Amino acid sequence: ESNSLPDEEYFDLYGLVDAVVSDARYEAQIPGVEIVLQASSDVEYTVKGNAELMRRAVDNIVRNALRFSSHGQRVTVVLTRIDQLFQ
């Protein structure tokens, strides 16, 4: 079925978010907006889900933040784990 969602898979959430932030840095250089990722190095970021949908969601949020930022501002993406949940 063409409208069905792909099966869930295990993926590295940090790696996914880092890739989105890295891609967005190129865009951020134009308006003079800095973008940084903050995440703890001692946390396991492997999650199960739809990596492509997660990438699209994170990309949308990051690009909206950049779009509504002014020259000289900073967009900080923070990845934290609280119990079994990431935010």
UniProtKB/TrEMBL annotation:
Gene Ontology molecular function, alphabetical: kinase activity
SUPFAM superfamilies from the UniProt entry: ATPase domain of HSP90 chaperone/DNA topoisomerase II/histidine kinase
Phosphoprotein among keywords: no
UniProt keyword list: Kinase, Transferase
Claim: Metal-binding is one of the keywords in the record: no
Protein name (record): Sensor histidine kinase
